[in-house]
Amino acid sequence: xxxxxxxxxxxxxxxxxxxxxxxxxxxxxxxxxxxxxxxxxxxxxxxxxxxxxxxxxxxxxxxxxxxxxxxxxxxxxxxxxxxxxxxxxxxxxxxxxxxxxxxxxxxxxxxxxxx
Length: 115
Known about the structure:
Layout: E1 8-11, E2 22-25, H1 27-33, H2 37-48, E3 52-55, E4 63-67, E5 73-78, H3 80-84, E6 90-93
Antiparallel strand pairs: 1-2, 3-4, 4-5, 5-6
């Protein structure tokens, strides 16, 4: 096959999953859009009026960056039990997010702030 490989893969949720579409790409996606992971999430969230979760780069599997529909963002904690069942459910924000005023904010302890 001579066709170039795709730069992104969209995976729809299974019927009973509580979380939406998953966008998977590599460096070619960044090159094609001119955006890194977080900037692309902000662009998509604003364009489609949706929220997006982005890996926060930490060693904690249940910490993410939530990007709101208005493009604001902040770190959040997800429920590890729900995640084990394929459902990314936000427990609370770790810092205020202007586009998500309804989220309770529970700052991490001092020892975990930059981990």
